[in-house]
Fold:
Amino acid sequence: MNRLTSVVVVIALAVGPALAQSSAQSRQSYQQKVQSELDKISAKVVDLRSRFEKAGSDSRKELDTDTEALQKKIDETRRQLDALQKTTDSQWDSFRKNLDQSLSDVRRSYKTTEAHFKKKSK
Structure:
């Protein structure tokens, strides 16, 4: 082994664990962020349901249907988050993109449901 190769090996051995730890921390941070956002949206759904308890039967049925569909999306996103925790580094980017898309869909569905509620409650 020549001197340059030795230096590269030493650097790789020194930096490798730090990069792996940084990657693990960033994955954990991302997962915590997604979990927190899902928890907040779930709490908003509960609040929304309690607010339209007083709605008329037709409106309430529609809103129940909307919030049930939203809850299914939240549950599916949570399952994806659980699966993400078990992914390898090579699968991480793909799973993260899918989870980002699901989370975006949950946000959009919540906003639509909330707007529907506001429209019905006028």
Observations:
- Residues 29-120 form one domain.
- Confidence is low (pLDDT under 50) at residues 7-14, 16-21.
